């Protein structure tokens, strides 16, 4: 499991560690890791031109010490001091001793134009809001060159705890982060500004229960996958009910069933008007021509994909004492008080537009602050919320770390792929996973299936469903 910590937690872990170490030791560890990452990126250090953008805090100190290390290996290093009187004094002295030089922002043009590599040491976890004007102007100049950009700890201008980007920010090719991941490195839009992320351990030990974000990895998912044993039969593996599709959208039913058949449940029961289309594609489906209440026992329901205005099915499903996944039209048709009153788990799977409609805000606002809105929706509905999109989040209503999915790919943004996800997650619910595990495991498998199916080319949602068995084999190793 990869975890991310709030600035407050990182700071207190730093204080605890610093009390045990000689003055400056942590910064030296950070700078050594940073310089090594820069050297790897450059391939050869000798003769390369490196520019440091240096703010007034310790983030600038890291950049200065790393610059000194690169200068000692033969790089030409120029530090642009954004606040000349307040730059990290010992770091600056080290750079000058190693042969580096300094310039003011006004004189930085030629150095930036010639740079092979730019280190962003403007702000780290001490940053507040977007870049200020002088820094933003410099960063704009950097963006117009071919120089590689390495962000120190975080891309300057992004909000460390939320992943929001409320003003100008650095766009890095690589971010070298120290001691602990910060939420901004895992959640969009900030994550996109970070480029690839390299972790440098400096000995910090944030408390195991203090994470604000968690990202599952292969081993975590493998341990959660429902695998049948000798005593299993189709009922013990769980039956998932799918109430989806309409005369207008029969395909949504087919795709949700396609996902459900690959999620580990022993059987898929379908109710709704798309029975013939479902059977034609998946003859193993148990098709019922009655409503959810009369359809026979299930261990979890999926309701909503392509369902049109069938409010009765949503109401019946919400009244069932089994886990329920609400998607698409089901989100719109569900009565909030009925969801809040449920005692069995509820998993809601909106995309940003659906979440915005439920919260009464603009879609852009949800996309700009994904973490806050996923948490807010979970609290309002007392349900687990899986907010789809470029970094899918799964938030529980009672707080705790939010799961963030690391496997997604924009190729998944194709009609019907959300239907596959809802069937898949519903199947995992029926197999006995908690709403949070079912949602985050489904997002993980679905993201990988998108990658496997696509491999760089456009795919349809049915291709994503077809790739799921291969993803299971890959994850189970
Ligand atoms: N504390 C530690 O033990 C360690 C800290 N390290 C580094 O220290 C950083 C944190 O250092 P600081 O606490 O000094 O804080 P930062 O260096 O992140 O930023 C604080 C400074 O930036 C200014 N500032 C804030 N927002 C700004 C904005 N939007 N535009 C321009 N300037 C802005 C503030 O006035 C302040 O002077 C970490 O991100 C990491 O890079 C590393 O050296 C590892 C060890
Ligand atoms: N930019 C993106 N990067 C990664 N995944 C994305 C992106 N955009 C959408 N997705 C994923 O694609 C799927 C689309 O689902 P959804 O919006 O419900 O579409 P539909 O209703 O057509 O099925 C979701 O799993 C979502 O997380
Ligand atoms: K930075």
TrEMBL record:
Catalytic activity: (6R)-NADHX = (6S)-NADHX; (6R)-NADPHX = (6S)-NADPHX; (6S)-NADPHX + ADP = AMP + phosphate + NADPH + H(+); (6S)-NADHX + ADP = AMP + phosphate + NADH + H(+)
Listed cofactors: Mg(2+); K(+)
CC cofactor note: Binds 1 potassium ion per subunit.
Annotated K(+) binding sites: 59, 120, 156
Pfam families from the UniProt entry: Carb_kinase, YjeF_N
Every YjeF C-terminal domain range: 217-475
Listed transmembrane segments: none
GO molecular function per UniProt: kinase activity
Subunit structure: Homotetramer.
Protein name: Bifunctional NAD(P)H-hydrate repair enzyme
Naturally occurring in which organism (per UniProt): Streptomyces antibioticus
Gene from which this protein is expressed: nnrE
């Amino acid at each position: 499991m990869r975890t991310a910590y709030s600035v407050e937690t990182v700071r207190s872990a730093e204080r605890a560690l610093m009390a045990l170490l000689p003055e400056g030791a942590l910064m030296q560890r950070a700078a050594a890791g940073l310089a090594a990452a820069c050297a790897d990126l450059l391939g050869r250090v000798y003769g390369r031109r490196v520019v440091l953008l240096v703010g007034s805090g310790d983030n600038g100190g890291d950049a200065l010490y790393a610059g000194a290390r690169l200068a000692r290996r033969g790089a030409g290093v120029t530090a642009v001091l954004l606040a000349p009187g307040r730059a990290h004094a010992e770091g600056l002295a080290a750079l000058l001793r190693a042969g580096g030089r300094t310039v003011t922002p006004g004189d930085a043009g030629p150095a930036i134009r010639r740079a092979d590599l730019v280190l962003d040491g403007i702000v780290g976890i001490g940053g507040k809001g977007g870049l200020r004007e002088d820094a933003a102007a410099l960063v704009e100049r950097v963006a117009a060159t071919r120089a590689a950009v390495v962000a120190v700890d975080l891309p300057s201008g992004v909000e460390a705890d939320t992943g929001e980007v409320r003003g100008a920010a650095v766009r890095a090719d690589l971010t070298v982060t120290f001691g602990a991941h910060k939420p901004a490195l895992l959640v969009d839009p900030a994550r996109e500004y970070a480029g690839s992320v390299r972790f440098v351990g400096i000995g910090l030990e944030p408390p195991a229960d203090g994470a604000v974000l968690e990202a599952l990895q292969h081993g975590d998912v493998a341990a959660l996958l429902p695998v049948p044993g000798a005593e299993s039969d189709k009922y013990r593996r769980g039956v998932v009910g799918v109430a989806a599709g309409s005369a207008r959208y029969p395909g949504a039913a087919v795709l949700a069933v396609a996902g459900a058949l690959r999620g580990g449940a022993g059987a898929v029961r379908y109710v709704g008007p798309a029975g013939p289309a479902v059977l034609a594609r998946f003859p193993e489906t148990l098709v019922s021509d009655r409503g959810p209440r009369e359809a026979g026992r299930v261990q979890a329901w999926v309701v909503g994909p392509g369902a049109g205005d069938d409010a009765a099915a949503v109401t019946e499903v919400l009244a069932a004492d089994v886990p329920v996944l609400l998607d698409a039209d089901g989100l719109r048709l569900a009565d909030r008080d009925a969801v809040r009153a449920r005692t069995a788990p509820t998993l809601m799977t909106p995309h940003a537009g659906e979440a915005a409609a439920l919260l009464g805000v603009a879609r852009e606002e949800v996309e700009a602050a994904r973490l806050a809105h996923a948490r807010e929706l979970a609290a309002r509905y007392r349900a687990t919320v899986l907010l789809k999109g470029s970094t899918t989040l799964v938030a529980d209503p009672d707080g705790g770390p939010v799961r963030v999915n690391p496997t997604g790919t924009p190729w998944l943004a194709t009609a019907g792929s959300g239907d596959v996800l809802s069937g898949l997650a519903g199947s995992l619910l029926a197999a006995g996973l908690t709403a949070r595990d079912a949602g985050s495991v489904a997002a993980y498998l679905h993201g990988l299936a998108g990658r496997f199916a696509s491999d760089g080319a456009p795919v349809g949602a049915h291709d994503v469903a077809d790739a799921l068995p291969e993803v299971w084999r890959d994850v189970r190793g």
